[in-house]
Amino acid sequence: MSFFSRIRERADAFFHDEKLKNKLYVIIFESDTPMGKLFDTCLIGFIITSILVVVLESIRSFSYHYTLGLRILEYVFTVFFTFEYLVRIYCSPKPRKYIFSFFGIVDLLSTLPVYLGFFFAGTRYLLVIRAFRLIRVFRVFKLFNFLKEGNMLLKSLRISAPKIFVFFFFVLILVISIGTIMYMIEGNQPGTQFDNIPNSIYWAIVTMTTVGYGDITPVTPVGRFLSAIVMLIGYTIIAVPTGIVSATMVGEQRKRSKLECPHCHQVGHEEEATYCKYCGSKLDWAGK
User: Fold this and answer.
1) What structural domains and CATH numbers belong to the chain?
2) pLDDT (tens digit, 9 = 90+) per residue, 18-65?
3) Global pTM value
4) What is the pLDDT of residue 112?
5) At residue 264, what are phi and psi to the nearest 5 degrees?
């Protein structure tokens, strides 16, 4: 057997080693086991430190004196996050699903800038490289993976998305209608800023969200009265999405409180949990 054949055989055995894949999957994707908690703790430390490096690089007086050290740290972080990304793909039961998931894309974006810097070398591309390097800040989104409240918030937003979409569609119709009405009221005034419907819709959005830049203001009594109505409507509208998400979170919390471990009888588990976070036993509903 030739050297290359042995290499190919070992590589094939490595990529089809289900026992190794399952072991890595439990460590990387499951945080209920001791090794999983250790891995998550180390990963959180690397993420926070890498974000701190990005922040320090933006301070010119600091980065000027410690350029080499910051660059070495960035290369170390890039190698670590690249290795982590490849291992996640290797041990994931559905690699394609992970690659195109939100956190899979974030993992990829957090490693690309340094590699892109090698291909965009030269004075002309310095600004482009700097823009690419800013993408590394996206690593902060990975912290949601380790926060139970963050996972619950993301799940509640996902469940509430259809209701929130319908609500914002209604708000969109409302601001278009109000902007058109304001154009009809103020559009004929001399020197008016409501000289077209898009500007009027922009004013309606700014007013309804209670931002109130003041760059466009009505001058007629009817226009000011309509402005007051829009401001009052804005206060009630802002509370609606918050109420939708809050109600969903309360429902998810109640559902979680009913999930009891059949071994230690402790409650408070997540629906996707595979192992009990108190005794470490496998949960009966896992995988169903």
Assistant:
1) 3-144 (1.20.120.350), 152-257 (1.10.287.70)
2) 888 888 888 887 766 778 778 888 888 888 888 888 778 778 788 778
3) 0.56
4) 81
5) -105, -5
